[in-house]
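Input for the complex:
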Amino acid sequence: MPKRVDHEERRRAIAEALWRIACARGLDGASLRDVAAEAGISLGQLQHYFSSRDELLVFALKHLGGLAEERIRRRLTGLSAPPSPRDVLRETVTEMLPLDEESRTGNLVQIAYFVRALHDERLRGHAKEGVPALRAFFADQVRAGIARGEVAATRVPDAEAMLLIALTDGLTTYLLLEVCTPEEAKGLLESHLERLFTP
Amino acid sequence: MPKRVDHEERRRAIAEALWRIACARGLDGASLRDVAAEAGISLGQLQHYFSSRDELLVFALKHLGGLAEERIRRRLTGLSAPPSPRDVLRETVTEMLPLDEESRTGNLVQIAYFVRALHDERLRGHAKEGVPALRAFFADQVRAGIARGEVAATRVPDAEAMLLIALTDGLTTYLLLEVCTPEEAKGLLESHLERLFTP
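Predicted:
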């Protein structure tokens, strides 16, 4: 068992080296050799854990996804009262925005991955995987809002979920480009939710 | 004067070689030498027109932006009746989505540029330039909608403009990843506009 743990730990350490490069200068043109250097190991050692750049990217992305889910869960359980569906949606989308170093890193790695997935069908498959789960989770909140009489029954939960995901994603872009301030992005999402939660 | 025209034509031909690479395999790792080869000229000849990859990227992006504006203008003037503010917004965001080869190319080049701008303050400056003009144009349409009694006077034109831009951008991502179908994306934008244009 310890050997397995070491293996996973080493893989995570390599993924973190990749994140540092993604944050500092982006992954455009960064090679496995660059990642190995950042992780303080040889290219051969790195290739023992990851046979290709894409394999490393998929692992780094899943690891980041897990950390992001963990962060959202902590945020929701940390609220004083049981959160309403509107609270859950607000806290989740806020946690998805690049408002601190960790979520900024997550978003930058996700973008690097997205750019590769555009030209690689296999990678696009992975990219699609995460969306239905998030969409179903958001749709559940809208459905709960309708059941509580807080959202108009004419709203379509699945469509509202996709709108909210797309909106959060678009605001992420403009936050990273510094076109939008964090306060503005949060205010825009709040006013979108305000209108959604109107019986 | 003919010399100047030749110069601009050559620059456009090089930009188009860059677009072809962006569409086929992305710009991640593509060098000036690759672009020169695609354009059928030597690296030295290319460097006569563009001294750096970023200079070429900025030119290619501005040229694409000009073509996109032209396309939107043609679409709006091609409508049978003078378009209402809601028509203008619908037609403009639809034209921005990657629904045909030309707008798909435009979006792919924009993303390649965006990824570089994340790590380059000077490039971020260029990226920011286009947004205020689009935002002001969208805000004007919302304002006109309020004046015509089609949009509630409580709506804030500038905020609605940014929401619509971010939403269109997010949907572009999910269209490119094939998470969303063109019909779905257009339907989601239509229902967003439907709600905005409710007195």
